[in-house]
Specification:
Blueprint lengths: L1 E9 L2 E10 L5 H12 L6 E7 L5 E6 L5 E7 L4 E7 L2 E2 L5 H4 L6 E7 L3 E13 L8 E6 L42 H9 L1 H11 L14 H12 L8 H9 L8
Parallel strand pairs: 4-7
Antiparallel strand pairs: 1-2, 1-9, 2-10, 3-4, 3-8, 5-6, 8-9
Length: 256
């Protein structure tokens, strides 16, 4: 029994290597399924094989599912470039032996699932095997594909409102006058309760006295007395001699 042995590599992971054995009569769909299994990939709806030259330049496409494509081709009759709709070759309809012509055939496999992976495939051995084996099969496995880490979703919450910052009262020399003073809540409450009464009393005491309501009484005797007392003071005499003459004529006896 003749089998093909392919080597599969992945450029983004240097230690990744798979070796797959498959019969020439099996299809590219069989090749696709063994690749999913040995690379630990989930089933996908879109995948392609591309037959390439020795430099991995794509030539022929083989698709997992029918996908209509428009290709630009030159039409000799019209002498212009036209768009043509075509369907690619399907994997299930393409046996390997019909499309593998080079003993060192190279291919590209593109996988489109939750992530996209591109593998490089090379036919490096054609073997004759005797015995009962199930093909295709993976005969060598090295390394793993990088896995995408799913970060847990964090609920978006509005940022907390910032509390207004209270700036401290700047210290000055006058602040020291209030040091040691403590507020008494009970006294403050009592003052606030009697505030209306205190303000009413202050308004009454601050009323101006009208000048027309008070008429001062004139007392002639008080005025004369003040003049007499003023005359009798020592400062009203210029010298002591005149003072003695004034009292010498007074004998000290009353006519009464």
């Amino acid at each position: 029994m003749i089998i093909y042995r392919f080597r599969i590599t992945f450029d983004e992971q240097e230690d990744f290597l798979r070796e797959v054995e498959i019969q020439p009569g099996q299809t590219f769909l069989d090749f696709h399924e063994i690749l999913l299994s040995c690379a630990d990939l989930e089933p996908c709806k879109k995948a392609f094989f591309y037959l390439t030259d020795l430099k991995f330049i794509k030539r022929q496409e083989i698709s997992l599912k029918p996908i209509k494509k428009q290709l630009r081709k030159y039409n000799e009759e019209l002498d212009e470039i036209v768009l043509e709709t075509s369907l690619p070759l399907l994997m299930k309809d393409a046996p390997l032996k019909k499309y593998i012509e080079d003993p060192h055939q190279k291919m590209i496999y593109e996988y489109y699932g939750k992530e996209i992976f591109v593998f490089y495939i090379e036919l490096f051995k054609i073997l004759k095997v005797e015995g009962a084996f199930n093909f295709p099969r993976c005969v060598k496995t090295t390394g793993e594909l990088p896995k995408k880490v799913d970060l847990p979703s964090v609920p978006v919450t509005a940022p907390p409102e910032e509390e207004p910052t209270i700036k401290p009262f700047p210290y000055t020399a006058s602040n020291s006058l209030f040091e040691g003073i403590q507020e008494n809540d009970s006294e403050l409450a009592e003052i606030e309760g009697n505030l209306d009464r205190i303000l009413t009393e202050e308004e009454q005491t601050e009323k101006p006295i009208e000048s027309s309501t008070i008429t001062p009484e004139f007392n002639e005797e008080e005025v004369n007395l003040e003049e007499h007392e003023h005359m009798e003071s020592l400062e009203d005499y210029e010298d002591l001699e005149n003072f003695e003459i004034h009292h010498r004529n007074f004998d000290g006896e009353s006519d009464e």
